[in-house]
Model the fold of this input.
Amino acid sequence: MSILKNKTNRRNAEECKLFIRPVRDVIEIIGGKWRLPILTALSFKKHRFNELQIQVDGITSRMLSRELKDLELNGLIEKNSLPETTSISEYNLTPYGKSLDNILVSMRTWGTNHREKIMNV
Amino acid sequence: MSILKNKTNRRNAEECKLFIRPVRDVIEIIGGKWRLPILTALSFKKHRFNELQIQVDGITSRMLSRELKDLELNGLIEKNSLPETTSISEYNLTPYGKSLDNILVSMRTWGTNHREKIMNV
DNA sequence: CGGCATCCCTAATGATACTG
DNA sequence: CAGTATCATTAGGGATGCCG
Done:
């Protein structure tokens, strides 16, 4: 019985690690202070660089530039330079970036609820 | 028409900010390298301190201690010191912590999928 | 076993100025 | 407008040792 229990515990422990690993992967990709806010803005609609800088309050052009580059490298967003005009580029979610929607929505929902809860207390 | 368009754009911009704010709130609470992995482990089952340290690979006791304290302060987890035994404490999700489930599941799901995608490419 | 204290280092971010 | 370059600062986190 104790042997069986040990085996069960070990299996549970392994299973638990299998839950954690993908979560850590996600954090690598969309973690940090800025990426989810940027993605949230882009899930709303496509934005230009300076529009993003206004929406994501407090971000510097330096950080915005870097984060956009990382998100693009990971295939979550795409950059389109408008051909007609000069010095205009637009950022948008790729289909793969749109697949983050469940995460974005669940976070937004929980966060909205939490804010209300904190305010009312 | 251009006036209407400006009003519409401004409304959209405000609405977008309303999407971003709660997301930033959530990041404040469960962001960073360790909190979501810890919460994921606890969503699986309650854990003791050293069990968590094993599950959340690479975390030091210092960081685990600090993160657990923050999560408890935010009402997401609870600590139970077992009365019978000495020096044993268990951590578990509170009901409020369990309300994070949608976030945890959506991240785990996306992360699992992403890992498969990366591996196969 | 479950932590806390100290010291230290690096990565992340900010501030500012500049450019095509 | 959409960034880049440089410098300064800070927060996050690792290593280690100690303690009830």
